[in-house]
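Hi, here's the filled form for the chain we discussed.

Project: internal
Contact: R.S.
Residues: 168
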Amino acid sequence: MKKLFPLLMLIGLLLLSCGSDDDSLQKIDQLFHLYIKDSTGKDLLNPTKVGSFTGLSLNDELAANDNAPVNFNRKMLSDSTYYMEYLAGATRQFVEDSPDGSKIYKSEIEVSLTKKLSETQNAPVVLDKLEIFYRSSPNIFEVSRVLYNSQLVFSKVQDQPNEVTIIK
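And the returned structure, exactly as it came back:
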């Protein structure tokens, strides 16, 4: 028993030292919402409405294959406004080390939009480019900026949601 007691104390100390605190956890902030509206503010992502982009698909441009669909959800707010919710799934490519010690990554996504012109006719497919840049440090992994067709449409504001509205 005398030999067992020091061994049990050592195991207990090891278990206590393996505990972690919440400060050591990395915060993940990569949920991204994309709204598409016309110049008058009309929602263009309604999946059933004539004049809206009823067809919407995403393709990972950095994937090993040319055909690499990216998962997303089309969701609706309580006021019947639709938006695209993207969480993850596209390839992330290292871009550079930031001066603050964090690392910058990006995803390039082709956005394919099909507009419903009438109940029986669709417009030609529109292909747009979405670039999402991420900042990664030991404390946080977050969306830092977004380009849509090479135009900056979003820059991260701390503690604000990652939401972008595109005017088409």
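Let me know if anything looks off before we file it.
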